[in-house]
């Protein structure tokens, strides 16, 4: 190895150590910090040239912002699914009871005479306003 390549390698190692320290200060989770460091290093070294600290810091911060947005969107999607499900998935017993109630209600609805059957059907099954 020549003196020039040795200096580049030493400089790269120093930059890598520096970006690791920065990531650990910005991210509480050590594993997540290391993942972001690796993504940053790969992005910075993509052109094959030496990486510089300002450039590395910018890439690291961008990766962290992208990660935060991604995690935020995922949390929102998971919350929405949880709200739609009422917090938990219904048990088999809950589902069976709900089906039995539906069957009984439809049977009672079938026993009504017109125009009551149509009125109840339009209001509660078709969600029409009560006029």
How would you describe this protein?
It is built from five helices and no strands. The protein is mainly alpha-helical and 131 residues long. It folds into two domains: 3-85, Orthogonal Bundle (Rna Polymerase Sigma Factor, Chain: A); 92-125. The protein has helices at 3-26, 30-44, 53-85, 92-111, 116-125. It is rod-shaped, with a radius of gyration of 30 Å.
Instruction: Tell me the number of helical segments per DSSP (H or I, 4 or more residues long).
Output: 5
Order of helices and strands: HHHHH
SSE-based structural type: mainly alpha
Strand content: under 5%
Helix content: over 70%
CA-based gyration radius: 30 Å
Residue-averaged pLDDT: 80
Q: What is the second-level CATH architecture of the largest domain?
A: Orthogonal Bundle
How many structural domains can be distinguished in the coordinates?
2
Which topology of the largest domain does CATH recognise?
Answer: Rna Polymerase Sigma Factor, Chain: A
Please state the oligomeric state of the protein chains shown: single chain
| Amino-to-carboxy terminus distance | 88 Å
Find the count of extended strands (DSSP E, 2+ residues).
0
Class of the largest domain, according to the CATH hierarchy? Answer: Mainly Alpha
Name the shape in a single word. Answer: rod-shaped
Low-confidence stretches: 4-8
Major β-sheet, in short? Answer: none
């Amino acid at each position: 190895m020549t003196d020039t390549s040795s200096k580049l390698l030493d400089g790269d190692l120093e930059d890598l150590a520096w970006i690791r320290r920065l990531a650990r200060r910005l991210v509480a989770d050590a594993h997540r910090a290391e993942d972001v460091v690796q993504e940053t290093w790969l992005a910075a070294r993509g052109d094959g040239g030496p990486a510089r600290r300002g450039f590395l810091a910018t890439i690291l911060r961008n990766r962290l912002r992208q990660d935060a947005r991604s995690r935020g969107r995922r949390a929102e999607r998971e919350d929405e699914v949880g709200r739609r499900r009422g917090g938990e998935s219904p048990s088999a017993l809950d589902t069976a009871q709900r089906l039995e109630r539906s069957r009984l209600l439809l049977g009672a609805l079938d026993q009504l005479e017109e125009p009551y059957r149509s009125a109840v059907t339009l209001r509660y099954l078709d969600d029409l306003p009560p006029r």
